[in-house]
Structures are given as C-alpha cells and as structure tokens.
Specification:
9 helices, alpha/beta, 231 residues, globular, 6-stranded parallel β-sheet
C-alpha cells in the first residue's frame, strides 16, 4: 500500500510524511533534493535564462529519480508514505515550465512521451490515498520565507503564485485515486506533535482495514526511512 503526500513547497509534506510513517508503522520515502541533483543549483542560479537552459534536464532528472525510487520501493515491498508523487513532477512542475516557456514545445513533447510510457509501468500503480496539503498563497509564501531553503527564499513571489495556481488546478482534476485534503493552517506538527492524532484518524477512516494494527501503540514506533524521492 502507498499513501502519497502532495502539496506546494512550504506546505509541510516532509514533516507529515515522517509523522504518518511513525504513527502507523509504515516505511517512509522522503525527497532527496540538493545532494543528488546536479541541475537544481543551475536552475535557480541565474534568473530566467538559467531556468530555460536547464529546465528539461532538471525535470528529466526528477522523473528518472522518481521512477527509480518507485521501483526500489515496490521491490522492497511493504507499505509506504511517499513525500510528493510522480504526478506532481509531471503535471505541476514540468507542465509549468512548458507553460512559462522555460521548455520548448519539442522539449515538452519529449518529456510527455517518456512520462506517459512510464505511467504504464507496474511501479506506477496509483497510491491508495493522496493526502493533499493546501493553504492560501500568503500562508505558503510566509512559510517559505521563514523555513525554506535559501534558493527558495530568494525566488520571486510571482513564481510561487503561478505554482500555487497550478497545484490547485491539478488537484481539482486529479482522479487517479481518492484525495484527502488538509488545510495546513489547522495544525502545526512542529509545535504540537500530538496533532498527528486527528490527521491519523482521518487517514484511517479512508483506509480501513488496510493500515497495520501496529498503530495501536502510538509513540513507540520509529519507521524506517529512505531518501528515495526527488524534490
């Protein structure tokens, strides 16, 4: 079984991934961002021209890493909580780069061709549940400015506004699996880890009877983790 955690940069996906994995005794797949991606620094380094020069390579790296991660997870077996999904990689980020003319039509067509083929792979079975984290743009930007990586804090607000709008459009059309939407203003797992109980109850209500009963012992679990994501 796979639970996907989706949402904007700054929405708290990684924190919720860790908390849900520990609460239910599941394996977690956290995103690995800076250490293994040679294109990310280039993309953010020099404005629009730098983004245009490296957008396709960046997105192909994310896509390849994502499906490699999924293959490893399926091979390992068991149940997982995934920090960001392959759907977002393609339908939010890569599509956004095309819409903003950071990728040409030929580059976008090549990317889409590869993505569609990979969706037919057995490792791309949809999650059992998608947990979507959302909040108004102002809340997200404030979190990025206060908690984000340096390169994210320096990114213009217009970029985040466009990304926020694409996320809302994407989740409105998403039909691959059931979606549980959480307003991130309603809890703070950093300040109050006990807030995971209310979220866990909502997740369990959607997934009974598939979740393991180890969750009857909250706080006693430390789920194994693996940095097998991509952004």
């Amino acid at each position: 079984m796979l639970i996907g955690i989706a949402g904007m940069v700054g929405s708290g996906k990684s924190t919720l991934t860790r908390a849900l994995a520990a609460r239910f005794g599941l394996q977690q797949a956290q995103e690995s961002v800076d250490e293994h991606n040679p294109w990310l620094e280039r993309f953010y380094a020099g404005g629009v021209e730098a983004m245009r020069a490296s957008a396709l390579q960046l997105q192909l790296h994310f896509l390849a890493t994502r499906f490699e991660s999924m293959r490893r997870m399926r091979g390992a077996g068991g149940s997982w909580v995934l920090d960001r999904t392959w759907y977002e990689d393609a339908e939010v980020f890569a599509r956004g780069h095309f819409e903003e003319e950071l990728m040409s039509e030929l580059e976008w067509a090549l990317y889409r061709r590869l993505y569609v083929e990979l969706l037919h792979s057995p490792v791309a079975r949809p999650p059992r549940l998608l947990v979507y984290l959302h909040a108004p743009l102002a809340t997200i930007v404030e979190r990025i400015r206060s908690r984000g990586r340096e390169k994210e804090r320096d990114t213009p607000d217009a970029y985040w506004a466009a990304l926020h709008a694409r996320y809302e459009r994407w989740v409105g059309r998403f039909r691959a699996c059931p979606v549980l939407s959480l307003d991130v203003r309603e809890y703070d797992l950093v300040a109050d880890p006990r807030a995971i109980e209310a979220i866990a109850a909502r997740v369990r209500a959607r997934l009974e009877p598939e979740l393991p009963q180890t969750e009857l012992f909250p706080g006693a679990l430390r789920a194994p983790s693996s940095a097998v994501g991509s952004r």
